[in-house]
Amino acid sequence: MTNKGLFIHFKWTFVIRLCKFAILNMEDKDNNKNLLLQYAGLGTQLCISLGLALYIGMCIDKKLNFPYPILVWVLPLTILVVILTKLIKDTSTKK
Known about the structure:
The chain is mainly α. The protein has one domain (3-91). Helix content is 88%, strand content 0%. The chain contains two helices and no strands. Helix 1 runs antiparallel to helix 2. The longest helix is centred in the middle third of the chain and has 62 residues, at 3-64. The protein is rod-shaped, with a radius of gyration of 27 Å. It starts with a helix and ends with a helix.
């Protein structure tokens, strides 16, 4: 092989390796984006669920005239337990 042919071979080998690296790097970025969106959705779900549980708890406590805000404490705690259980199940490694 001549020097020119060796250079062209090296150039194409480099281009192919660079393309493979770029494709693998894009797949990693897609996985990171999916993971970010999954956790952002879970955080949004947690905030909205807790806000609704507090509001519903206050409304029911006012209607039933409880001396202590029982449902304001019970409903959000229940929501937290359910969402944390879901989080553990979703993020645990599957065997």
